[in-house]
């Protein structure tokens, strides 16, 4: 995979992870309620759920490319439209109510369970990956490139939420995030619309 293409993938994955939502709220709750370790455990387990979705998406897209090229073209264009819709929605979002997380009494097992379940129980996540990865998977792509895509999505998601958990465990990062949630939404929206336009323009 060319470096420029990978950088685009990494940027969109990063914006997707940083965007305020139920995943961020879950990590915040466990960090505020149990400290650094539960927050990190929740972050890592969430990343594993994201990695599973990314793996299944790459597998499925590979099969569609091989056997149904027209269907893959429709998925690609539909994915571009979905990314654009997400971008517009992010631009219109407010300051991110998901950041108003309350602490809960938690332990390591609960943090691990919630991390995976929030990832796997979110139907928007699989739609996001189908929309996103359809822009990066090609018919001649080898398994090494597909593994790189899955690893990129997994590691970026895990790294961001671990960073949030570690930072929140000893500083006043939450008010900083709350104050800038609208900017996070705006940057995310612009990036998603940019990816959609790139597909439309060929």
From TrEMBL:
The keyword Ribosomal protein belongs to this UniProt entry's keyword annotation: no
Membrane topology field: Multi-pass membrane protein
One Pfam family hit: LysE
Subcellular location: Cell membrane
Entry keyword Secreted: no
This protein's GO CC annotations: plasma membrane
Regions that span the bilayer: 41-62, 69-88, 125-143, 155-177, 183-201
MF (Gene Ontology): amino acid transmembrane transporter activity
Keyword line: Cell membrane, Membrane, Signal, Transmembrane, Transmembrane helix
Secretion signal span: 1-25
InterPro entries: LeuE-type
Chief place where the protein resides: membrane
The protein's name: Threonine/homoserine/homoserine lactone efflux protein
